[in-house]
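Progress note, sequence design subtask.
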């Protein structure tokens, strides 16, 4: 299996976490999304990463890639009950939407947009608080695919919090506990390069958006 990646992409990171959790062997090929190579555009139907090459086949969409990886490397990280599995898939979709909202937060051009995005993100986190149980994971005792889908999101919240006194989890104890468990999970840490925090901060700086101005001069 060969995973096509962009270093900072949270969707790719979901797949790296899943592959690592499953102990799967895989190669990783990095591309520059600002200047994607023609071979990549030829195989990626949406022009997006991640893409997983398996022999002559191409699998795209992180949630689908992760289900494939899960199925070929038992035991499964998906719950056995079909209804719980369906609910998990639905919340994985919710997590994808929240990743885009988070992206909107750190690329917002001005304070008004930034605050609007922050409101969207906080609303999403409140919705999660309402569905989470006692933890430590989304389904309780067992770490599952749905957890791999949220780890990159929470790792970025952690960095955003460190750079600015911005509390995303105030009044959300279950989300805060899940966040802590996810960012401390070894596969979350090892799914990104050692200089990820700097890389991420430089990326935000380059957007020249409101978050970049907010964080200017701060160190992690
Ligand atoms: N729904 C996709 C989203 C993937 C995605 O948005 N990837 C971004 C990078 S993080 C991308 O490749 N963007 C390139 C583009 O939109 O042209 C998934 O879950 O795999």
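Output:
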């Amino acid at each position: 299996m060969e995973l096509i990646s962009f270093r900072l992409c949270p969707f790719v990171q979901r797949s790296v976490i899943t592959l690592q959790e499953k102990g799967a062997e895989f190669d990783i090929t990095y591309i520059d999304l600002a200047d994607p190579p023609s071979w990549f555009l030829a195989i990626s139907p949406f022009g997006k990463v991640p893409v997983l090459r398996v022999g002559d086949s191409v699998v795209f969409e992180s949630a689908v890639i992760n289900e494939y990886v899960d199925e070929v490397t038992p035991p499964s990280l998906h719950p056995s009950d079909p209804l719980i599995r369906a609910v998990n898939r639905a919340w994985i979709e919710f997590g994808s939407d929240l990743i885009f909202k988070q992206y909107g937060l750190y690329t917002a051009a001005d304070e008004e947009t930034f605050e609007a995005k922050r409101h969207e993100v906080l609303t999403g986190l409140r919705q999660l608080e309402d569905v989470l149980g006692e933890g430590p994971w989304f389904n309780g005792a067992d770490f599952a695919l749905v957890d791999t889908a949220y780890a990159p999101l929470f790792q970025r919240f952690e960095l955003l919090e460190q750079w600015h006194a911005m509390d995303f989890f105030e009044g959300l104890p279950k989300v805060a506990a899940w966040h802590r468990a996810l960012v401390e999970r070894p596969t979350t840490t090892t799914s990104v390069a050692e200089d990820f925090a700097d890389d991420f901060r430089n990326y935000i700086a380059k957007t020249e958006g409101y978050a970049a101005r907010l964080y200017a001069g701060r160190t992690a």
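The domain at 2-72 is CATH 3.40.30.10 (Glutaredoxin). Work on this subtask will continue into the next period as scheduled.
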